[in-house]
Every structure is written in C-alpha cells, then in structure tokens.
C-alpha cells in the first residue's frame, strides 16, 4: 500500500466525521494547551519570582564589624560616607552588643505577680536610616531623626511583633516602655520588613540612648545597593566605613543568583509539569475512547477493506494514523493556543513572556505521540477483526 | 481440453482454461457446543465465464460458502483452488493478496463509504492491490462506464438510488479485472426495477466473459443464472 494512499485514507477517515474529530481533538488541545500554558507561565512567573528574589538578595550587603577595646572601627557618622557611594541605595548602622540582647522590657511600671508584663526583647541601637535599610516601613508613627539622636532623646521605635507583645496599639497617648527599668517614649512601630525580619520583635533606640545599655560600637552595617552594584560596593564599603582599617571588616556579599534561579525554576517547573501531564493523560484517554467507538462503528468498513485486499497491518496503520493525526492536530492547536495564552497572561501581568522554543515544537510532537499511543489498542482491535465477522 | 476455451478473453489477460473455482470435499465446522458443520463435503467447479447461482434457505450455509469462496474464511478440511492456486495452505497475507486481486465482492448492503464520492469509492478497490496510483481515476471511470454510471461520478452514495448504489459497488468490484465476481444477495435491497437493472448488468458482464457467482434466495435472480446449485444443511446439490 502506497504511503500516500494510507495518509489519504486516514485523513478522509478523520474528516468523515468532522464534529466528532473536532471534539476528540479538543481533548488533546486542552491537554497540550494546559501543558504549554503551565510550563510557559511557570517559566515566565518563575523568572519573575526569581527576578524579584534576585533583586532582593543580589542587592543586600552586610558588613560585620568586630568589637574593639578602645576606638571603634566604624563611627556612627561613617554611614554618611557610605551612602555617598554611587550604587548605595540605603544603609544603616546597628549596635547589637551582648549587653543589649534580650533586656527586660515592659509597657508600664506596674509589677503584677499574677501577670507576665515583662518581655525579654532584643534591644539595639541603630542609625536613622534603618527603616529603608531593612526595606520595611513605619506601620505607625515615625522613626527617630538626627535631632532625636543629637539631643539624646529617650525615644524608642519598636518592631510590629514587639508592639503586639507589649500591647502597644496606639501612639497618640505617647506610650512609654521600660527598658531595663528606664522609661522610653515609643514614637513609632516598624513593620513589613523584607530584610532582617527578626528585628520585628526588637526595640530600637538612637545610638545616643543606646549607650546606657552598652550599645556603643557599631556591630553591623546593613547596605542596600542598586541592582548590579553589589560587587562594587562590596569592595568599596570597608574603606568608606573604616578608612585605614577596612581590611578588618567582614563583608557578607549576596549569594550567586544563578544557582538560586535554577533551583527555584526547577521546583516550579516540576509541579506544573505534573499538572500538564495529567491533563494530557486525560486527553489521551479521550482519544482512545473515541477511536475505540469509531472502530466499533466502522466494522462494516473494516470488513469492506479486508474484502478489497487490505491486510491486518493496513487496517491497523489506518486507525493508528487517524488517531495520530487527531493528536497532532490537537498538539498544533494546543501549542498555538498555549503560546498565545502565555503571551496574553504575560501582557496582562506586565511580565516578559519566557517560553522555551523547544516546547512549542515538542508540544505537537507530544500530541501526535499521545494520539499514537491512544490509538494502539483500538487499532489492534480493528486489525484483529475477522473479515467474515466484520461483513456480517 | 478445447471445450474449455470458449469464453471471451478478458482485456489484458491471456486466455486461461483453468476453472476459476475448484472446491473439493470442503467442510467447515464451527467449534460450538455441540459443534456445527456449516459445510459438509462440498465439491464445486466453476469454469471461466460461468454464471452460477447458489440458492438455499436461511441457515443453509450460503454465507459460509460465500466466505470460503471469497477467502474470507478457511475450510476446516478439503481443498479450494482459486484460479488454479491452492488456497487452503496459503499464508494469511497471500490469501489477502489473492482476494484483493482475483475476487470482486458485491454485497447486499452495497458497503459504499458514505463520505466519499462514487469514483472515490470505486478507486478504493485499487488501494490494497499494488496497482500504481497513476491512472487510477481513469480506470475507475472506465469501470463506472461499464456499469453505466458516468453521470454520477462525483455524487455521494447518499444521493444515489438503490440500483445506482449497487451499480457503483459492482464498478468497484470490477476494477482490476477480477477472475470472479462474488455477489451476496446483490438485489436483496432493491426494488423490482432496480433488480432488473442489476441483473441486466450481470447478463452484460457474463457476455463479456466475467465469472459470476451469486448467492441468493430470490427465484428471479437464480433463474437468470446459467447454472444453479442448491445448498441445504451445508450440502450442495446441482439443479
């Protein structure tokens, strides 16, 4: 049998019942579309997520400052020199000495043995740029400014979790908290931290006020840079913070973004790939069902073809090719719809669509393969029919 | 045997004096409980150009005989030579090829593909026989001309009358010049006018030298055949 005849017969068989073929194709279309959309959107969204993740991580630098006995390595005003560097977005110095960690803090002076009114909270001194350096925002009130620092005002800013622990819900009555028995006025609540989230349960005081708790020396400097400037700032920051003693500072640079991206994308892809394959399996079952029904309906035609000299393999090949063509058609339509959907979703979300070109090519092939596999059993059933029985 | 070289030669084929059908002591048993013997020691010889009617009531074994003659089924025992080829020992693929090349089937229910045109239905007969694609449509048109259906070439079978459908099916059976036209109740679905038209066509084909075997239970059809055999309970009797 000529291959052109085989293809012609398969196409004619497919077109003989156009509505049924279209509905059968729909199963594969949905499967392949789901596959392409899930993989495409996953890749696009993954890239977007990873992009944001990268942006967060790739621009965060931490400078660890070792404690010295006499002259501090980093002065509090050294932050001004650092922020003047091109590429630095925000920076803040912190003093978190051993003495300042977990001091008893309570919101009133009442000693009530029946209630736990004292919380053990981390207390630290920080320069005025801390909210920006933590990539957070003032949930309530304000952060202290240079004036507070200069005057040595006994003010404090507390993290949102610390506020909940201490029962500070309003700032208009100028609530006081007692740190190690010393009263401080709470002027703001800091929250939504995207960096150093543990500071949400901390009490932050100006450097001048922190001396009372032994928070004299800068122990860490948090720096945020522009995207791509991290490497440069990593090199420049020590000299800017501590001219002459820069080599004693330890700079914690961002991790490699490539590895993080690959890992995140693999996680996302694996999940969506399973979803797509399940959809495709449903499509395959649909093709198998309809092809089997078609075979049963075309028994007389099978008998006729056998009487005309068709061998079993000719019958099998025709039905197999028909189901493969249905799968291929579904794959082509599904891939097209999927690509359009990915682009549409990306446009709506203002993302950059990211689609592996191999996926757009592999999707129709996958559709054809699904059709081929789905058609195996029905084709075998058709080929096994005895011509005399088929013609009865 | 000069008396056997009496028929007209079929176009393109040398004169063949061998019988088209030689059944010798053929039995066909079906393995049921109890076993059923559908054909019992049937012997039949059909010469080239014969027009034979096989008659018999329902359940007499007509269909089984047709299946054996058409190489759609194998006899349990005995021998069947088609065009001089012993078929009972042939492998399945050779039987299939022989069936496609030597036998033209005409069925009671026409078996035309409803979504294909008349000429496409006729062309179907050449797909599996190894004939070249080139000139296939021309040969199909010639077959349609033979049955007087050139005015319905591009029609779908659904738009044809019963007689026309059967003539289209006959044209399909004739494509490739088979040795044997095997007809199973060819007028069973036709009214008297169309029956007459189809029988007239058989007469013409017979006159052209075609070997025709018609299985029927209709008296009118069997009387038109030159020769008639009756099958009763799987046994064949010449009338």
Q: Can you offer a commentary on this structure?
A:
The complex is a heterodimer of chains A (392) and B (239). With 392 residues, chain A is an alpha+beta fold. Chain A has helices spanning 3-16, 18-58, 78-83, 130-133, 146-151, 160-166, 207-210, 230-241, 257-297, 299-307, 312-349, 357-384, 387-391; strands at 60-64, 88-95, 103-106, 118-126, 137-141, 155-159, 176-179, 182-191, 202-205, 220-225, 250-252. Chain A folds into 2 domains: 3-53 and 258-391, no CATH class; 59-255, no CATH class. Chain A contains 13 helices and 11 strands. Chain A has a 6-stranded mixed barrel with strand order 3-4-9-6-8-7. In chain A, helix 2 packs antiparallel against helix 9, helix 9 (257-297) crosses helix 11 and helix 11 runs antiparallel to helix 12. Chain A is elongated, with a radius of gyration of 35 Å. The model of chain A has no long low-confidence stretch (mean pLDDT 84). Chain B has 239 residues and is of the alpha/beta class. Chain B has one domain (48-76, 92-238): Rossmann fold (3-Layer(aba) Sandwich), CATH 3.40.50.300. Chain B is built from 7 helices and 10 strands. A 6-stranded mixed sheet of chain B has the order 6-7-8-3-9-10, sandwiched between helices. Chain B has a 4-stranded antiparallel sheet with strand order 2-1-4-5, covered by helices on one side. The radius of gyration of chain B is 17 Å and the shape is globular. The model of chain B is unreliable at 1-9 (pLDDT under 50). Chains A and B meet through helix 1, helix 10 and helix 13 of A and helix 2 of B.
Keywords:
heterodimer, A: 392 residues, alpha+beta, six-stranded mixed β-barrel, 13 helices, 11 strands, 16% strand, elongated, B: 239 residues, alpha/beta, Rossmann fold, six-stranded mixed β-sheet, four-stranded antiparallel β-sheet, 7 helices, 30% helix, 25% strand, globular
Specify the helix fraction band of chain B.
25-40%
Number of strands of chain B: 10
Whole-number total of structural domains of chain A: 2
Order of helices and strands of chain B: EEEHEEHEHHHEHEHEE
How is the main sheet of chain A built?
6 strands, mixed, barrel
CATH hierarchy: architecture of chain B: 3-Layer(aba) Sandwich
Main structural class of chain B: alpha/beta
Tell me, rounded to a whole number, the average pLDDT of chain A.
84
The main sheet of chain B orders its strands as 6-7-8-3-9-10
- Major sheet summary line of chain B: 6 strands, mixed
Give the tally of β-strands of chain A. 11
């Amino acid at each position: 049998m000529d291959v052109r005849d085989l293809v012609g017969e398969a196409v004619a068989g497919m077109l003989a019942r156009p509505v049924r073929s279209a509905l059968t194709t729909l199963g594969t279309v949905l499967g392949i579309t789901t596959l392409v959309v899930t993989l495409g959107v996953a890749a696009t969204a993954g890239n977007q997520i990873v992009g944001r993740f990268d942006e967060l991580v790739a621009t965060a630098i931490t400078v660890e400052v070792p404690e010295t006995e006499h002259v501090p390595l980093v002065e509090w005003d050294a932050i001004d020199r650092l922020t003047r560097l091109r590429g630095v977005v925000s920076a803040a110095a912190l003093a978190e000495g051993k003495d300042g960690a977990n001091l008893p803090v309570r919101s009133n002076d009442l000693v009530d043995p029946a209630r736990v009114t004292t919380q053990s909270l981390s207390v630290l001194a920080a320069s005025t740029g801390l909210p920006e350096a933590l990539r957070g925002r003032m949930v309530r009130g304000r952060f202290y400014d240079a004036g507070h620092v200069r005057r040595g005002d006994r003010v404090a800013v507390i993290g949102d979790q610390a506020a909940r622990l201490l029962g500070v819900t309003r700032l208009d009555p100028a609530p006081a908290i007692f740190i190690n028995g010393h009263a401080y006025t709470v002027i703001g609540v800091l929250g939504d931290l995207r960096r150093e989230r543990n500071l949400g349960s901390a009490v932050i005081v100006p450097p001048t006020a922190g001396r009372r708790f032994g928070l004299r020396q800068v122990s860490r400097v948090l720096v945020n840079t522009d995207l791509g400037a991290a490497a440069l700032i990593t090199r420049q920051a020590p000299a800017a913070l501590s001219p002459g003693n820069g080599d004693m500072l330890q700079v914690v640079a961002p991790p490699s973004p490539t590895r993080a991206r690959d890992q995140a994308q693999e996680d996302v892809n694996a999940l969506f790939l399973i979803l797509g394959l399940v959809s495709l399996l449903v499509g395959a079952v649909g093709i198998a069902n309809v092809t089997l029904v078609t075979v049963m309906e075309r028994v007389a035609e099978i008998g006729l073809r056998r009487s005309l000299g068709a061998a079993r393999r000719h019958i099998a090949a025709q039905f197999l090719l028909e189901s493969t063509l249905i799968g291929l058609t579904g794959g082509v339509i599904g891939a097209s719809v999927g690509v359009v959907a990915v682009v549409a979703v990306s446009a709506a979300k203002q993302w950059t669509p990211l689609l592996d070109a191999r996926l757009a090519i592999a999707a129709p092939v996958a559709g054809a393969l699904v059709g081929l596999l789905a058609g195996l059993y029905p084709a075998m059933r058709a080929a096994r029919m005895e011509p005399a029985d088929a013609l009865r | 045997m000069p008396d056997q070289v009496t028929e007209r030669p079929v176009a393109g084929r040398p004169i063949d004096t061998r019988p088209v059908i030689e059944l010798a002591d053929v039995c066909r048993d079906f393995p049921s409980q109890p076993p059923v013997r559908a054909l019992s020691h049937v012997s039949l010889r059909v010469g080239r150009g014969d027009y034979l009617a096989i008659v018999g009531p329902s359940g007499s074994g007509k269909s089984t005989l047709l299946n054996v003659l058409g190489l759609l089924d194998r006899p349990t025992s005995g021998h069947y030579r088609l065009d001089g080829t012993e078929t009972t020992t042939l492998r399945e693929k050779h039987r299939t090829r022989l069936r496609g090349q030597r036998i033209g089937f005409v069925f009671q229910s026409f078996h035309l593909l409803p979504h294909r045109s008349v000429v496409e239905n006729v062309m179907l007969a050449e797909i599996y026989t190894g004939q070249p694609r080139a000139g296939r449509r021309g040969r199909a048109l010639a077959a349609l001309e033979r049955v007087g259906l050139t005015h319905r070439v591009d029609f779908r079978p659904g738009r044809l009358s019963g007689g026309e459908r059967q003539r289209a099916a006959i044209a399909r059976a004739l494509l490739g010049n088979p040795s044997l036209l095997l007809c199973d109740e060819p007028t069973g679905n036709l009214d008297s006018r169309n029956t007459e038209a189809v029988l007239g066509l058989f007469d013409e084909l017979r006159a052209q030298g075609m070997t025709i075997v018609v299985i029927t239970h209709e008296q009118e059809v069997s009387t038109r055949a030159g020769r008639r055999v009756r099958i009763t309970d799987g046994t064949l009797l010449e009338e």
